[in-house]
Amino acid sequence: MATLRAPPPPAGAAAADGGIEENAMAILDTAGIKDARDLHDDRAAFLETVRSACLAADNPSPPSWRMYNAVFQILQNSSSLELIIASFHLLVELGEKYPRAYWTDSVSGKAFVVVKELWSPFHLCSDVASGEFGGNTRHLDHLFDSSRFSSLIEDMVETANDTDANNGIEHIKNMVLLQYLVSTLEADFIPRRDAYKESLDWVISRESLLQMLLVSRKLAFKSFVKNCISLLLSQYYQEVEDGVSSKECSAKSASDLDSSIAVISSEFKRKALASVQKLFIMVMNLDLIRKEADTMGLTTRADGCRNPILDVILDELTYNISYLSPFLLTFMEWKWKLEIILQYFSKYCGKPAVRTRRSDNSQHDLTLENVLSLFSTAATAKGIVKKMSSEVVQLLLANAYQVCLSVEGDCSKDSDTRKRIGATLLQISDSFVSAFQNLRKINPNIEILPFEKEALFTAATMIRILKNGQR
Asked: Which residue windows are transmembrane per the record (predicted)?
């Protein structure tokens, strides 16, 4: 596998973009001078022109730095829902058509290509400034560095807690921005992750937008993760409230509320929730790569240092028990959901093996089978319950069993997750039911909540089905 740097666009394409660039600069410089309606029309026409030239033409050409930048400024500066959504969709489509990092076929085989000159919504290092502007950072103030990205999350948390503001245009704009920024990080990180797996070249991951964002001194990582958790949970609670009140809203006439904004806001709340999950999963995968690179001695102090995101999440869930249930209900990526549950148990089920930079003690990691064995007798179960509480134990076990069922029904055969489960579905189901029987022996008056009851019923049913299938 080779890593290549993409060549610049042809001179003809750059020349053809000159007229569009001039229009872009004119549009962006007329704010406060033109009539609002004229400005809206000019911006809408500009977006359509960029779409036609760069996406819909017979021979589309990639947009210049200024064209990209103009579209992003329209997204941020517009008070029109139409322009916010149109500019967002255009940026996403341009990113898919002209990716920053991608795989391509070459004479020597598959090659990993990085287009370092391509415009990005992130300004993460001093050399990002385009040569077109001669390094004048005044033109980059609207781009996102680590501090501004963190502030966006903080603002969204505050607005989400303000019932009067969480359906407004500004909140929708922030949710759209978050979705676009996370999708940009993902489009850059995923091919780099795959390239690292092929080459074990840590530099490929070290130069990712995600890594540069997280290691910046401008980012207080623990506070950032806590704010992301707060946003995730606030969006979850709003979804629950939206579901409860949807019937009431449908009974109201359109004149009683701005139905279009309400519907779009609800949709982007769901997408914002998904974006936070994507961000968490990317950081977890980056931590996995960093850990492996550390083990092989590929990293240096210059690469920065921070706590793994799982440690921060677990600390937050441990000290705020009320977060645990909604977080597990919201976080639906099976591999990492199970990892969070197992690491939560590991905090209370004996001291983990000491890990050093150059050692790999993965064989000592808990599996779900190991955890369930701790509840194989009433005596051992009692010791864990004293440390964790019966309610937390039930919740974690039921969510872990949900993961087992989902992995069993997944045709992709996630081998890593299956290893972390450590046993067959029949064995896990049997141990799961036995664990709850022992919990009841400890406390005959134990309250089992509906989610856990459903998991128990499913486990008992699976035992019967699977045993009959073995006959």
From this structure: none
- The strand pair at 101-106 and 109-114 is best described as antiparallel
What distance in Å separates the CA atoms of residue 335 and residue 338, rounded to the nearest whole number?
6
The whole-number pLDDT of residue 353 equals: 43
**What CA–CA distance (Å, rounded) separates 24 from 92?**
19
Task: Give just the sign of the alpha carbon dihedral 280, 283, 285, 287.
Answer: negative
Collapsed DSSP state (helix, strand, coil) of residue 142: coil
DSSP tag of 122? B
CA distances from 196 to 202, 288, 290 (A): 7, 12, 11
Kind and range of the H or E element at 244?
helix 221-251
d(CA 269, CA 165): 13
Report how far residue 59's alpha carbon sits from residue 400's, in angstroms, rounded to the nearest whole number.
Answer: 52
What pLDDT score does 285 carry?
96
Q: How deeply is 174 buried, as exposed, middle or buried, from its count of CB atoms within 10 A (0-12, 13-18, 19+)?
A: buried
SS3 229: helix
**pLDDT at position 361, please?**
44
pLDDT at 69: 93
Q: What pLDDT was estimated at residue 11?
A: 43
- pLDDT score recorded for residue 17: 57
What b-and-e string marks burial along 285-298, b requiring 16 or more CB atoms within 10 Å of the CB?
bbbebbebbbbeeb
**How many C-beta atoms surround the C-beta of residue 305 within 10 A?**
8
Q: Which long-range contacts (CB under 8 A, 24 or more apart) does 299-308 make?
A: 299/202, 299/206, 303/202, 303/206, 303/215, 304/214, 304/215, 306/214, 306/215, 306/221, 307/221, 307/222
Could you tell me what percentage of the chain is helix, strand and coil, using 3-state DSSP and rounding each to the nearest 5? Answer: 70, 5, 25
The Cα–Cα gap between 36 and 13 comes to 32
pLDDT averages per 10-residue partition of the chain, 471 residues: 54 51 61 67 92 91 91 93 95 95 82 91 64 51 92 91 71 94 97 93 94 93 95 78 53 50 79 93 96 91 87 94 93 93 88 46 72 93 92 96 88 78 94 96 92 95 88 61
As a whole number of Å, the CA-based R_g of the chain is 26
Distance (Å) of CA 457 to CA 19, 346, 462: 67, 27, 9
For residue 200, give every residue at least 6 positions away whose Cβ sits within 8 Å of its Cβ, in sequence order, or none: 292, 293, 296, 298
According to DSSP, the residues that pair with 8 across neighbouring strands are: none
Alpha carbons 203 and 160: distance in angstroms, whole number: 38
